[in-house]
Amino acid sequence: MVPSLCHESDVLALLAGVIQASRCTVEQLIAALSSAYLASSPHVAAALQALIAGALPVAGEDARRILTKSGLPTPLWNPALRTPSGAFLAQPAAYWPREGVALEIDSEEFHLEPASYRATLWRRLRMETAAVDVVSVAPGGGVP
User: Fold this and answer.
1) Is 113 in a helix, a strand, or coil?
2) What residues have CB less than 8 Å from 91, skipping those under 6 apart?
3) How many CB atoms are closer than 10 A to CB 124?
4) How far is it, in rounded angstroms, from Cα 120 to Cα 7?
5) Could you give phi then psi for residue 120, rounded to 5 degrees?
6) The dihedral sign for the CA sequence 9, 123, 104, 132
7) Prediction pTM value
8) Contact 93/56 with Cβ under 8 angstroms?
9) What burial class does residue 136 get, using C-beta atoms within 10 Å of its C-beta: 0-12 exposed, 13-18 middle, 19+ buried?
């Protein structure tokens, strides 16, 4: 399903999906949208500001709310994880560096198509190979 892109939340969901699918970084997305003269569009500009501030789609915001109340240590939200040499690993919804644990929210919307599913598996494998324990949940708190 393609969002209508008539609302800021639709644009944020689309752009965040690109980031979550590890297609590019926020900085690369800003550069691409700027070169296409789209970054100044009101909905796009607002969504980019939200991404810069670390906003997540609805499932990510739900996870943030639940984890904040849980008593667990505060994670890094939506960080770009890199290897010691600087190579990009993944950008999980949350990451606890001290514990080496990443939270991945695997929604059907972004992870069910064959290519997206393979990308999700490869992202998880890259993190696990780098000694990051990955916890996967589905939106709403279920285990996928």
Assistant:
1) coil
2) 19, 20, 22, 25, 78, 79, 80, 81
3) 18
4) 27
5) -65, -45
6) negative
7) 0.58
8) yes
9) middle
From CA 128, how far away is CA 144, in angstroms rounded? 18
Residues of the chain with pLDDT under 50: 1-3, 142-144
Q: Which residues contact 56 (CB under 8 A, 6 or more apart)?
A: 16, 63, 64, 77, 78, 93
User: Which residue's entry shows tokens 């606890």?
Assistant: 96
> The tokens of 37 are what?
């003269």
Rounded Cα–Cα distance for residues 144 and 142 (Å): 6
Q: Which two tokens stand for residue 43?
A: 């909905």
pLDDT (tens digit per residue) in 74-116: 888 888 898 899 888 888 888 999 999 999 887 655 555 677 7
Output the pLDDT for position 130. 94
For residue 98 the two structure tokens come to 């001290």
To the nearest 10°, the Cα dihedral for 23, 24, 29, 33?
-50
Q: List Cβ<8 Å contacts ≥24 apart for 53-62.
A: 54/78, 55/12, 55/16, 56/16, 56/93, 57/12, 57/13, 57/16, 57/17, 57/20, 58/9, 58/13, 58/139, 59/93, 59/105, 59/107, 59/139, 59/140, 60/16, 60/93, 60/105, 62/139, 62/140
